[in-house]
């Protein structure tokens, strides 16, 4: 499928990566730019870890682990086993193959390369066709104010397994961070077909991207349809803590509630057929589709539905 023009997709990790892969399979590589959340990035065991960026990279390279949704397939765990024997921190699991990514990224960053340059080099080596870019080359860190005080994102998400209730979210470094220049150029240039907000957690995967100075304004002014895909089906998240977090913020989890979260940006919204009764509450034109992506065919079908929705909105304007 090709309607001509560039598609810019904003994405977090597992859920967003499924749609990103679907888009990559139905679009020519040069017509897709995927922008990854880096608010989840952190330093662990002396290494620079970029969880969402790597999940997207592995998915687009066909190297993702279908059992976990993160990390590399065919993974082994000798490093973690040996680390545990020495009394090291094993709460954040790094597979042997995945570890090579973090070691080489850390080496290159310390040598002066940017995160964008490192990512581009990895993508070339792994055969990723579309452009995959971090949201910024500057440091942004998501932190959560919980019932137990402030926690770094990975502490809350992995070590504490999302248990402490969240009261507020902060994106440290975002006000001074610069959006990735190629992303801004794509949004401000001509020939943009659509901006797609993937079905990632709006609070901790998409909003860190939108918190970068000028990014939200560039999306609003891009001149192309902006379409989001709901990460909620039947009042629950397909994966991850989205529904739990919305409840803790006093928001009833629903597909329509996520649409309202993006209300200043959206031209259209894709929600699951099971949530058809909520369509009117979304506040924007809605396309109903099967949004639960179990198979590769599901990913491709949803990608086509999203692009068709964007194209119909473009023709209507």
From TrEMBL:
SUPFAM superfamilies: CofD-like (SSF142338). The keyword Transferase applies. GO terms for molecular function: LPPG:FO 2-phospho-L-lactate transferase activity; magnesium ion binding. The keyword Amino-acid biosynthesis does not apply. Pfam families: CofD (PF01933). Keywords: Magnesium, Transferase. This is LPPG--FO 2-phospho-L-lactate transferase. It comes from Caldovatus sediminis.
């Amino acid at each position: 499928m090709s309607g001509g023009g560039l598609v810019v997709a904003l994405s977090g990790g597992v859920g967003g990566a499924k749609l990103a892969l679907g888009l990559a399979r139905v679009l020519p590589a040069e017509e897709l730019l995927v922008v990854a959340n880096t608010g989840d990035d952190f330093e662990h065991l002396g290494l620079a870890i970029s969880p969402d960026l790597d999940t997207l990279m592995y998915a687009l390279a066909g190297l993702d682990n279908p059992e976990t949704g993160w990390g590399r397939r065919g993974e082994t765990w000798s490093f973690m086993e040996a680390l545990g024997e020495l009394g090291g921190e094993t709460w954040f699991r790094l597979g042997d193959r995945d570890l090579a990514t973090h070691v080489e990224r850390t080496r290159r960053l310390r040598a002066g390369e940017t995160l964008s340059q490192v990512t581009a080099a990895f993508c070339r080596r792994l055969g990723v066709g579309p452009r995959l870019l971090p949201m910024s080359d500057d440091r942004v860190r998501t932190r959560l104010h919980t019932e137990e005080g402030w926690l770094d994102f990975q502490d809350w998400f992995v070590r504490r397994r999302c248990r402490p209730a969240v009261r507020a979210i902060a994106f440290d470094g975002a006000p001074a961070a610069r959006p990735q220049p190629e992303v801004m150029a794509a949004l401000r240039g001509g020939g943009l077909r659509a901006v797609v907000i993937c079905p990632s957690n709006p609070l901790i995967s998409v909003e860190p991207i939108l918190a970068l100075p000028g990014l939200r304004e560039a999306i609003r002014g891009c001149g192309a349809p902006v379409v989001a895909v709901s990460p909620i089906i039947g009042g629950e998240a397909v994966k991850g803590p989205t529904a739990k977090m919305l409840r803790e913020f006093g928001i009833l989890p629903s597909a329509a509630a996520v649409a309202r979260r993006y209300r200043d940006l959206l031209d259209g919204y894709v929600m699951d057929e099971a949530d058809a009764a909520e369509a009117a509450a979304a506040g924007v034109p809605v396309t109903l589709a099967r949004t639960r992506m179990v198979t590769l065919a599901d990913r491709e079908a949803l990608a086509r539905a999203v692009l068709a929705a964007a194209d119909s909105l473009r023709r209507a304007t």
